[in-house]
User: Fold this.
Amino acid sequence: MSQYRVLIDANDEKGLVHKVSTVFYKHDLNILSNNEFVDKENNKFFMRSVVDGDIDAGELERSILEVLPKHANVDVIEPKKKNIILMVTKEMHALGDILIRHEAGELEANILAVVSNYDTLESLVSKFNIPYKTISHEGLGRSEHEDKVLEYLAGFKDIDYIVLAKYMRILTPRFVEAYENKIINIHHSFLPAFIGANPYKQAYDRGVKIIGATSHFVNNNLDEGPIISQEVIHVNHAYSWRDMQRSGKDVEKVVLSRALKLALEDRIFVYANKTVIF
Amino acid sequence: MSQYRVLIDANDEKGLVHKVSTVFYKHDLNILSNNEFVDKENNKFFMRSVVDGDIDAGELERSILEVLPKHANVDVIEPKKKNIILMVTKEMHALGDILIRHEAGELEANILAVVSNYDTLESLVSKFNIPYKTISHEGLGRSEHEDKVLEYLAGFKDIDYIVLAKYMRILTPRFVEAYENKIINIHHSFLPAFIGANPYKQAYDRGVKIIGATSHFVNNNLDEGPIISQEVIHVNHAYSWRDMQRSGKDVEKVVLSRALKLALEDRIFVYANKTVIF
Amino acid sequence: MSQYRVLIDANDEKGLVHKVSTVFYKHDLNILSNNEFVDKENNKFFMRSVVDGDIDAGELERSILEVLPKHANVDVIEPKKKNIILMVTKEMHALGDILIRHEAGELEANILAVVSNYDTLESLVSKFNIPYKTISHEGLGRSEHEDKVLEYLAGFKDIDYIVLAKYMRILTPRFVEAYENKIINIHHSFLPAFIGANPYKQAYDRGVKIIGATSHFVNNNLDEGPIISQEVIHVNHAYSWRDMQRSGKDVEKVVLSRALKLALEDRIFVYANKTVIF
Amino acid sequence: MSQYRVLIDANDEKGLVHKVSTVFYKHDLNILSNNEFVDKENNKFFMRSVVDGDIDAGELERSILEVLPKHANVDVIEPKKKNIILMVTKEMHALGDILIRHEAGELEANILAVVSNYDTLESLVSKFNIPYKTISHEGLGRSEHEDKVLEYLAGFKDIDYIVLAKYMRILTPRFVEAYENKIINIHHSFLPAFIGANPYKQAYDRGVKIIGATSHFVNNNLDEGPIISQEVIHVNHAYSWRDMQRSGKDVEKVVLSRALKLALEDRIFVYANKTVIF
Assistant:
């Protein structure tokens, strides 16, 4: 008996639920959970089912593909720990939260390594017996620095997700394309407000009464990738931007960990620069 | 072409989604939305689909019942305005919110009448050309008073929901049973905290930092019916219980209107003293 | 015995609390509540006290001014109902919420009139015996239309606040300057995200997971005035922009009424395009 | 130049702000922040000021006491790291959050030791070079076990706060009295709902739509001590109680750390089984 997560997206047409559930039924699979969504604007059908039964993953995938319209995508995924890389700069809170969850066994993930442009967080990471790789950007152009990072990453056979846990450098298109929809970032504002540098300072200057954080997949436009999760907290006039920054950290780490969990559980579809999350 | 909301609950068994979606497919129905949930603890299957097509409601209901296990329930509901009665005492906020939504055409409902044990709110209600019936409880036992209310309600052919929009009297089991799962109440606390009288005073005395409101179906245990919706706001030491009461009103009215909307859209299943809401 | 709200802003210097509280003490005033804030960045001191005692407002104001540094502002305000004008276009929810609060006696305000560029909401407003003035913009330039509105407003002796309860036209600088820091708007987004037209559509297109509303004073940059209050709700992929709009209404009306209440209670200081709120 | 946090509580009478601020003024102290609150019900005055200047703490305390009514309390506290003990059982999330904040330098605290009735978390704690003391309760009566814990704690000269970071044993009155208003607990429910064992199971059984966590000082009634901070998250029918437990952990750790931060910054007054928090 195996358990599978089945992720389907296809152009919508009548009968898709019927067709897919018939495949499950014929193969005597048990449906543990089932979610569907139709984006009427784009005529797009999304379905995520968790099933168990006595069948090979490849066979199940083929059986489903047969009943779907052209250009449909099917992923039949066996739940197992995914391989992730963390990238950080100097701040500890988001990284620390992930390390603790990892240590507690809460994450379906192996942390292959932590990569940073500083050695600041090495002493924390090494406590957990996780490789820490400092690749300084000092004296290097953006491209040169990224070459070194990419080269280091190339040493890992299989990377499912790269988590930017407050990695404060902008990635080039080349990097982003190499790991399309695999790079999860936390931006310390309620996007699309306050794109770019020092959003807490921007928020303070604007006099907002709520601040937030946004986790998103990285694409080639700064802070404009598909949003996975957002959260906010109330502030008032008595908050300096440093106070906002301090309070914001609690939101940032929760939002990033929430996004990572959704990704590790294969709950996210990306399309049209948005996410469908079951 | 008709649109239907199909609500199904049944003992869970393999293939239910397949069987139901096959019925939809055979009748050439278009699925506009689809939600399922299996309560594993109670082995109970819930499904709500919105479909459109060229079929008679009774026929659709029979076709679905045929493929379901014994003791299953199917409701095929054609969306239309439901008939509701509002019951109030003296406070205006929850009633006023519903009246404005009704006036704005936001509610799928006809307000048949507003019933109160005081005439305080008559002048507001009469502005909207809605019957207002004062049935004073002065000098009457609980049962006698309720007799009069029940008698008045009996004059309406069809009552889908009775909304207690801050009706400050306790209903007897006889009343509750006459309108089982049809009476929606707003309780001005975050249930199950602060059951009973003056929950804001109770909350103040306990020194809580958050207060809330709870909408629920009424059953025969005070404030213990199935919960539909809850919401909270933060408070602090500077709030008197009167301040809590004032601030709480905004939560109360939003939570009650939210529950009413869910009921009017046939989104709520009640079982095991809980709700499943799609 | 009179009660006063005392609002002070001044350049900060040592001893201000001492000096002001000494004035209160000498005049044998009772302090009911007291709030101070120093904006260190701008070296600005803010204080709001509620006091009661046997003194004339003008005398109290002069006594306080004497102990403050140059260029300080003091307002000694006797709590009473303020005069407000509501401006609307076609949507009922924000207007209705204010009308019900007014009817319930929750607002320290007289609604002098409701002004609109359409007659859509006249039937609602007239239920409450409040003057409704339709000033159509059809066939008029922005300036011509505003002339007519300003002319109508000029007929009122004393206007404390103008509340834009979903008034969907942009005011010219002339109008804004005529009522500086007296015009309260509700913008249906979490500013500064989604400035301008149809923010729900913008939010939908961006795929956000949270939407919000912002009440603010109006200045001459569209949606960029000092923020008074903000609130948000969570949404997901299943929300169309129409769903966001519907759900957003509940946030809009609460946020606007909250801002209005703060203004009516003289709790807001405006400076540096921000608000200090006690 | 020294900085002090001045905490005052006294029976309220006219002129207290004047009198205290006059002391500050005479000693040429600069007020960095200032908060007051009068509990009218109990006629109680609370004030917290942060001041800096050239004065001895004892002298400042005496000068303030002189101007206050009888039975007043004054604390003049020089900000410095407080000494804390963490007590845990087996769960890692709340402990881990505090350890990471400590490591990041976010906490004004020295963690003297972590005490547990199990050795489960020793490997985590020892990574941070913090003493971990397992005092098993196996085969011991409650009192005997506590004797051993108290004996261990007696070895520390100065304990400012004991933080129960999911310590799943009930303390006896003797323990609680030994550390009155110094023991901070996190209860995994929105108190006063779901007091006692397995609140998530209780919440699940009740069918609530919101769950929460509460940090509070420990007194001799289980989960009934003065509340410091509360937070909630929304849940729905699809949450098993295990899901609630998992999601609740994120709230628990944030609420506990928030309470600890408030305590370390001397922002909490306790009276009448409530807290005043500035």
Observations:
- Chain A touches chain D at residues 92-93, 96-97, 99-101, 103-104, 106, 124, 127-128, 246, 250, 254, 257-258 (CB under 8 Å).
- Chain A has two domains: 2-77, 82-277.
- Residues 111 and 271 of chain A are 27 Å apart (CA to CA).
- Chain A is about 30% helix and 30% strand.
